[in-house]
């Protein structure tokens, strides 16, 4: 392992056990590449009929063409995920700071487990809770918002009577992506060089000033990538949205009315069991678009993470 | 690295001499008093509102929320007057950060208590011994869903554990150069696959073989495996990298062939971590709904055959009970909640077991 390339290496004796073992490890590794290629290839293959068939013959499109059908879904996906992200990131940074720098050292690990518990709850349970508990609970609040903040376009109303709006779905999404963002932010904050922190404190900084000067600049890239990974999660989350949101389609920024755009994933889950013929291909095509969007978001997140690895002072 | 020895810590001042560290600072009990005071005030205000207008009722959540807001404002201004703006800001941020944690606890507590409260209604023997075959109203159970979940998750584990483990061994022990880089990158990509896309993939795979409309247990298992493999690879890779190189080199020096080093030295050393990672990955996929809904469909009948017909699973059972409530909606909702409770209990049990294994069997590397 440490020998330089110039010295003549003595080749190790090739035993059959070695060959079988390294061969199977190699096959397993390559299989992952094959599976990913297959995912992309099969989805593309099955999406083709959705594009080539005359839109009038596809019942699920209801008279519009594929692009017009998909656009509100893409909008709903991005819109709900963005709201979720806006709600979740500040809270997640707060929790991560609380666990890493504010909570008593002895409690910190236990509190981390508590937040991890949120990650252990299956999405279908979040959907059940969001639809049965959260939506009725926030409905009065939406009515209040409509009366008192109706001039603001986001809260224009008329307020939904069930509370199953895109804002409720986004709150559930925010709760679901909270643990992953928190976990990454916590890791990054804990990696802050202790010497930086102590130097700031020794100069007379308060705890907040120390965090602002030493911890946050160090963790900025980490926060960005955590947010991106959370965004990727929120984009692909299906059940919570499908069970909470009462979607009517259409593009609207209104957060509290009863007409809400659906998301790609929720639309697939709701329509797929009854779909037949080319309708299935249309849904698969929307799935392919979702795949492409999340791929883009995750790749950007990874690039940010890797850049940080190269330039940070850690390790 | 040379470090200056820290000066011995000064003990807490005991005499009557004023402590220079504490002058110009609020005593420690002030925040507590302010918090208690603002809580009392807000509860009093809300109680007054409640007596004035009995139809509204007492809004405890609103009272607590406004009390916290009041606390933040009061502590900021008190600190600003006595300690100066910098410390006041510090106190404000402390309040906000603590508040963020409490906010995150609210949904967790609400969710767990609701599931416990509603789930116990049907947590009986019938639930675990009956399927939903020919059940329209009350009664019935989720035996078919529990077995389906066990079958499909089991099959997914059988597929993904060897592949994931071997891939991580490749990445840590063998992989050099481009292929290893590509695998690492694409494992990351795979981690980000939305679960419903995995379901669609499994569905299209079987459509190509069997024709359209096919729903099979094994398709669900493959969808779960696609989601599980990257998790297994990630966690196992991390665990294998923790094995100290000295152990490997010592074995090589004794003339042990590489595959035996991996098999007899590396794997046994990291077995606890590997098991933990695998159990956590199982607990992650066991709650997946969307891929199973798409790939395995749903049914009311028992199905022990992965390769024949639709297969129910616990998450899909919860979902379908919730979405298609029959004539007796409460019976369906009760079953959904009990299913959710069962699911949470399974996931929690797996998580706890994993943490226990990690703690009990991990090698004591450093003292």
From TrEMBL, chain A:
<comment type="similarity">
    <text>Belongs to the binding-protein-dependent transport system permease family. CysTW subfamily.</text>
</comment>
<feature type="transmembrane region" description="Helical">
    <location>
        <begin position="20"/>
        <end position="45"/>
    </location>
</feature>
<feature type="transmembrane region" description="Helical">
    <location>
        <begin position="276"/>
        <end position="301"/>
    </location>
</feature>
<feature type="transmembrane region" description="Helical">
    <location>
        <begin position="166"/>
        <end position="190"/>
    </location>
</feature>
<dbReference type="InterPro" id="IPR051124">
    <property type="entry name" value="Phosphate_Transport_Permease"/>
</dbReference>
<feature type="transmembrane region" description="Helical">
    <location>
        <begin position="210"/>
        <end position="231"/>
    </location>
</feature>
<dbReference type="InterPro" id="IPR011864">
    <property type="entry name" value="Phosphate_PstC"/>
</dbReference>
<protein>
    <recommendedName>
        <fullName>Phosphate transport system permease protein</fullName>
    </recommendedName>
</protein>
<feature type="transmembrane region" description="Helical">
    <location>
        <begin position="69"/>
        <end position="99"/>
    </location>
</feature>
<feature type="transmembrane region" description="Helical">
    <location>
        <begin position="111"/>
        <end position="129"/>
    </location>
</feature>
<dbReference type="InterPro" id="IPR035906">
    <property type="entry name" value="MetI-like_sf"/>
</dbReference>
<keyword id="KW-0813">Transport</keyword>
<dbReference type="GO" id="GO:0005886">
    <property type="term" value="C:plasma membrane"/>
</dbReference>
<dbReference type="GO" id="GO:0005315">
    <property type="term" value="F:phosphate transmembrane transporter activity"/>
</dbReference>
<dbReference type="InterPro" id="IPR000515">
    <property type="entry name" value="MetI-like"/>
</dbReference>
<keyword id="KW-0812">Transmembrane</keyword>
<dbReference type="Pfam" id="PF00528">
    <property type="entry name" value="BPD_transp_1"/>
</dbReference>
<comment type="function">
    <text>Part of the binding-protein-dependent transport system for phosphate; probably responsible for the translocation of the substrate across the membrane.</text>
</comment>
<keyword id="KW-1003">Cell membrane</keyword>
<keyword id="KW-1133">Transmembrane helix</keyword>
<keyword id="KW-0472">Membrane</keyword>
<dbReference type="GO" id="GO:0006817">
    <property type="term" value="P:phosphate ion transport"/>
</dbReference>
Automatic annotation (TrEMBL), chain B:
<dbReference type="GO" id="GO:0005886">
    <property type="term" value="C:plasma membrane"/>
</dbReference>
<feature type="transmembrane region" description="Helical">
    <location>
        <begin position="261"/>
        <end position="282"/>
    </location>
</feature>
<feature type="transmembrane region" description="Helical">
    <location>
        <begin position="184"/>
        <end position="210"/>
    </location>
</feature>
<dbReference type="InterPro" id="IPR051408">
    <property type="entry name" value="Phosphate_transprt_permease"/>
</dbReference>
<dbReference type="InterPro" id="IPR035906">
    <property type="entry name" value="MetI-like_sf"/>
</dbReference>
<comment type="similarity">
    <text>Belongs to the binding-protein-dependent transport system permease family. CysTW subfamily.</text>
</comment>
<feature type="transmembrane region" description="Helical">
    <location>
        <begin position="216"/>
        <end position="233"/>
    </location>
</feature>
<keyword id="KW-1003">Cell membrane</keyword>
<feature type="transmembrane region" description="Helical">
    <location>
        <begin position="150"/>
        <end position="172"/>
    </location>
</feature>
<keyword id="KW-0812">Transmembrane</keyword>
<feature type="domain" description="ABC transmembrane type-1">
    <location>
        <begin position="146"/>
        <end position="354"/>
    </location>
</feature>
<dbReference type="GO" id="GO:0005315">
    <property type="term" value="F:phosphate transmembrane transporter activity"/>
</dbReference>
<feature type="transmembrane region" description="Helical">
    <location>
        <begin position="336"/>
        <end position="358"/>
    </location>
</feature>
<dbReference type="Pfam" id="PF00528">
    <property type="entry name" value="BPD_transp_1"/>
</dbReference>
<feature type="transmembrane region" description="Helical">
    <location>
        <begin position="91"/>
        <end position="117"/>
    </location>
</feature>
<keyword id="KW-0472">Membrane</keyword>
<dbReference type="InterPro" id="IPR000515">
    <property type="entry name" value="MetI-like"/>
</dbReference>
<feature type="transmembrane region" description="Helical">
    <location>
        <begin position="58"/>
        <end position="79"/>
    </location>
</feature>
<dbReference type="GO" id="GO:0035435">
    <property type="term" value="P:phosphate ion transmembrane transport"/>
</dbReference>
<comment type="function">
    <text>Part of the binding-protein-dependent transport system for phosphate; probably responsible for the translocation of the substrate across the membrane.</text>
</comment>
<keyword id="KW-1133">Transmembrane helix</keyword>
<protein>
    <recommendedName>
        <fullName>Phosphate transport system permease protein PstA</fullName>
    </recommendedName>
</protein>
């Amino acid at each position: 392992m440490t020998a330089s390339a110039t010295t003549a290496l003595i080749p190790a004796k090739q035993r059959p056990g070695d060959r079988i073992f390294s061969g199977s490890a190699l096959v397993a590794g390559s299989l992952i590449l094959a599976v990913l290629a297959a995912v992309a290839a099969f989805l593309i293959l099955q999406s083709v009929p959705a594009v080539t068939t005359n839109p009038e013959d596809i019942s699920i499109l209801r008279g519009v063409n594929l692009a017009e059908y998909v656009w509100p879904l893409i909008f709903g996906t991005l819109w709900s995920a963005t709201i979720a992200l806006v709600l979740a990131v500040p809270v997640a940074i707060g929790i991560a700071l609380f666990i890493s720098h504010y909570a008593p050292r002895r409690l910190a690990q236990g509190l981390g487990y508590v937040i991890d518990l949120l990650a252990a709850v299956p999405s279908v349970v979040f959907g059940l809770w969001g639809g049965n508990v959260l939506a009725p609970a926030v409905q009065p609040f939406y009515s209040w918002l409509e009366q008192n903040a109706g001039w603001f376009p986001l809260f224009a109303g008329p307020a939904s009577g069930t509370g199953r709006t895109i804002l409720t779905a986004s709150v559930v999404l925010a709760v679901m992506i909270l643990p992953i963002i928190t976990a990454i932010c916590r890791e990054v904050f804990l990696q802050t060089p202790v010497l930086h922190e102590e130097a700031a404190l020794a100069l007379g900084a308060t705890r907040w000033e120390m965090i602002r000067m030493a911890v946050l600049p160090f963790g900025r890239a980490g926060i960005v990538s955590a947010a991106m990974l959370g965004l990727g999660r929120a984009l692909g989350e299906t059940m919570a949205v499908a069970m909470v949101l009462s979607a009517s389609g259409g593009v609207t920024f209104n957060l509290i009315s009863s007409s809400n755009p659906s998301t790609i994933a929720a639309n697939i889950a709701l329509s797929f069991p009854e779909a037949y013929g080319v309708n299935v291909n249309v849904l698969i095509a929307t799935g392919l678009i979702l795949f492409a969007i999340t791929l883009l978001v995750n790749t950007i997140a990874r690039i940010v993470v890797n850049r940080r690895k190269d330039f940070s002072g850690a390790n | 690295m040379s470090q200056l020895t820290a000066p011995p810590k000064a003990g807490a001042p005991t005499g009557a001499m004023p402590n220079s560290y504490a002058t110009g600072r609020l005593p420690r009990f002030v925040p507590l008093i302010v918090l208690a005071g603002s809580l009392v005030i807000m509860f009093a205000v809300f109680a007054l509102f409640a007596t004035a207008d009995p139809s509204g009722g007492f809004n405890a959540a609103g009272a607590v929320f406004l009390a916290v807001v009041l606390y933040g404002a009061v502590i900021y201004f008190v600190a600003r007057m006595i300690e100066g703006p910098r410390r006041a800001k510090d106190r404000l941020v402390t309040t906000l950060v603590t508040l963020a944690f409490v906010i995150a606890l609210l949904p967790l507590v609400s969710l767990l208590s609701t599931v416990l409260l509603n789930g116990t209604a049907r947590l009986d023997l019938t639930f675990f011994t009956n399927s939903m075959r020919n059940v329209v109203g009350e009664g019935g159970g989720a035996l078919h869903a529990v077995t389906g979940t066990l079958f499909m998750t089991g099959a997914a584990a059988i597929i993904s554990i060897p592949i994931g483990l071997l891939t991580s061994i490749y990445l840590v022990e063998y992989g050099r150069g481009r292929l290893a880089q590509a695998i690492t990158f694409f494992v990351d990509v795979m981690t980000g696959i939305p679960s419903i896309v995995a379901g669609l993939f499994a569905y299209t795979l079987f459509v190509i073989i069997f024709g359209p409309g096919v729903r099979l247990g094994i398709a669900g298992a493959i969808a779960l495996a696609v989601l599980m493999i990257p998790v297994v690879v990630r966690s196992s890779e991390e665990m294998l990298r923790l094995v100290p190189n000295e152990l490997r080199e010592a074995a090589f020096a004794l003339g042990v062939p590489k595959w035996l080093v991996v098999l007899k030295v590396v794997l046994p050393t990291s077995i606890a971590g590997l098991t933990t990672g695998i159990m956590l990955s199982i607990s992650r996929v066991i709650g997946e709904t969307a891929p199973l809904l798409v790939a395995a469909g749903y049914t009311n009948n028992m199905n022990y055959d992965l390769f024949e017909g639709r297969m129910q699973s616990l998450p899909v059972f919860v979902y379908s009970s919730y979405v298609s409530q029959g004539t007796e909606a409460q019976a369906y909702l009760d079953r959904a909640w009990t299913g959710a409770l069962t699911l949470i209990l399974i996931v929690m049990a797996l998580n706890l077991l994993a943490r226990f294994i990690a703690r009990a069997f991990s090698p004591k590397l450093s003292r």
